[in-house]
Amino acid sequence: MADPMRIRAQAAGDKTTVRVLMSHEMETGQRKDAEGKTIPAWFIQEVTASLNGKPVLTAEWGPAVSKNPFLQFVVKGAKAGDKISVSWKDNKGDTRTDEATVS
Question: Which listed residue, of 21, 29, 71, 90, carries a Cα 20 to 30 Å from 49's Cα?
Answer without folding.
Answer: 29
